[in-house]
Specification:
By secondary structure, the chain is α/β, with parallel strands linked by helices. The protein has 13 helices and 13 strands. The radius of gyration is 23 Å and the shape is elongated.
C-alpha cells in the first residue's frame, strides 16, 4: 500500500524517515521536519495506513502490515540515514528492522509502548473517547489538549485533534485491541545499528515503565538512552531539548552517511566471516581487548584470556569443517553481563555478533565463554 507523505529539504540530502504514533499524522512533525531540513537533511514523514491522508484500513491489520506499507512507500531501493518513530511509529520502525534487514543506518525510538506497561484496552477506550469529543467539538478537544499538555503549542494541540478526526477510528481501535502482539525487549535486542532510545518520565505519562523500562534499555546492543522530564510525546513536550539531543547524537548529516556506510559494509562482511572463524582467529589475540556493546553508554572492554580446542577433529573428520573451540574473556568484577548475544568489536578481527555465557569469577574479574562448533 502506498502511503501519503510529507517532506522537507532538498532531494539528494541524507534522508530521515519519520513515523508518527497512533491517531496522529505527518502533522505531528510540523517542527521536527523543518528542523531536519534547516540542518542539512531531507525528511520524509508518512501517514500510516488508516491515518491522515493515507488509504483506509481493512480492519484486520497487524504490526507487520504497517511496516510493509512504510517499506513499499519509502524504502524500496533506498537506505535511509535515520529512521525515527514515535510510540506506535517506534514499533513500526522496529518491525521494519526485523522484517527488512535494517533499512536505515541509525534508529531513533521515541517512547515506544511496552506491552507489559501499556493497557491497550484502556488506550483503545481513550481513543474512542477522543474521537467522540473531537467530532462533537474540535475547539473543545483543542482546549482539553492544552489543559492536559501545558507544554504543547496551540499548533501541537490542533494537529493532534486533526489527526484524530482524520484517522480510521474503528479499525485503529481494533488494531490496539487485537493487532499488537510483540516482545519489545527482543525487538530492540535484534537491532544492530546505532539506536537512540528517547523516553519521557514515568510520572508524566511515559508508556514504558519499570521494570520493563530497564529491560528494554538493557537490550540495546549499540545504543544510548535519554530520559526527559516530559510526557509520552517528547517532541511536543520539549521540542528544543528534543532537537538538541538529535543534533548532538546524529552530528553532521554528511559525516553520518559516510561513517555509517563504512560501518554498514564492515558489518555485513564480518557477519559473513563469523562462520569462517577458527581457533587461530583468536589465539593470536590473547591478552587483547574486545569491546562489548551491552546497552546504552560506552562499550564494556573484555580481555581475551584463552582460546581452547574442543574434542579434537571435527565430527566424522569431515573436510572443510572447523575444529570446535571455546574462547574465554575476562571483564570487571563489579559488572555482570547476562547470558545473551552481544555486538563485539576488535581492531583487527572486526565486528560480529557473539553469544556469551558468564562462567564465574577468577582472581582478577568475571569470566565469559563463547563456544564455536
Amino acid at each position: 500500500m502506498r502511503l501519503a507523505t510529507r517532506s522537507w529539504g532538498e532531494e539528494g540530502r541524507p534522508l530521515a524517515v519519520l513515523v508518527h504514533g497512533v491517531t496522529a499524522s505527518t502533522r505531528t512533525w510540523w517542527r521536527v521536519g523543518p528542523w531536519f531540513a534547516e540542518n542539512g537533511w531531507r525528511a520524509v514523514a508518512v501517514d500510516l495506513r488508516g491515518h491522515g491522508a493515507s488509504p483506509r484500513m481493512h480492519g484486520d491489520e497487524v504490526l507487520g502490515d504497517l511496516a510493509t506499507d512504510v517499506y513499499e512507500t519509502v524504502f524500496e531501493g533506498v537506505t535511509a540515514d535515520v529512521l525515527l518513530g514515535h510510540s506506535l511509529g517506534a514499533l513500526v520502525a522496529l518491525k521494519l528492522c526485523e522484517d527488512y534487514g535494517e533499512p536505515a543506518r541509525r534508529l531513533v525510538l521515541e517512547d515506544p509502548p511496552g506491552p507489559e506497561s501499556t493497557d491497550f484496552g484502556e488506550v483503545a477506550r481513550e481513543t474512542q473517547a477522543g474521537v467522540v469529543l473531537a467530532r462533537g467539538s474540535s475547539e473543545e478537544a483543542v482546549r482539553r489538549n492544552l489543559i492536559e499538555n501545558p507544554a504543547w503549542t496551540d499548533e501541537d494541540a490542533r494537529n493532534s485533534v486533526a489527526g484524530i478526526l482524520d484517522c480510521d477510528a474503528g479499525p485503529v481501535v481494533g488494531l490496539l485491541r487485537e493487532g499488537l502482539r510483540y516482545d519489545l525487549a527482543a525487538m530492540v535486542r535484534s537491532v544492530s545499528i546505532p539506536t537512540l532510545l528517547v523516553l519521557g518520565s514515568e510520572e508524566r505519562g511515559s508508556v514504558l515503565l519499570a521494570p520493563e523500562r530497564q529491560a528494554v534499555a538493557g537490550s540495546l546492543r549499540r545504543g544510548k538512552v535519554e530520559e526527559f522530564d516530559a510526557g509520552h510525546s517528547i517532541h511536543r513536550d520539549d521540542f528544543d531539548g528534543y532537537v538538541r539531543l538529535l543534533g548532538g547524537w546524529l552530528g553532521d548529516p554528511g559525516e553520518v552517511r559516510s561513517r555509517s556506510k563504512g560501518q554498514e559494509g564492515s558489518r555485513q562482511v564480518e557477519r559473513a566471516k563469523l562462520e569462517t572463524f577458527t581457533i587461530e582467529t583468536f589465539s593470536g589475540h590473547l591478552g587483547g581487548t574486545f569491546r562489548i556493546y551491552a546497552g546504552s553508554g560506552e562499550p564494556l572492554e573484555l580481555e581475551l584470556i584463552s582460546a581452547t580446542g574442543l574434542g579434537g577433529s571435527p565430527e566424522g573428520g569431515a573436510s572443510g569443517r572447523r575444529q570446535p573451540f571455546s574462547i574465554v574473556f575476562r571483564g570487571p568484577g563489579d559488572i555482570l553481563l547476562p547470558q545473551r548475544t552481544y555486538w563485539v568489536e576488535h581492531e583487527q578481527i572486526g565486528s560480529f555478533d557473539l553469544f556469551l555465557v558468564p562462567i564465574g569469577p577468577d582472581e582478577k574479574g568475571l569470566c565469559y565463554e563463547a563456544i564455536f562448533t
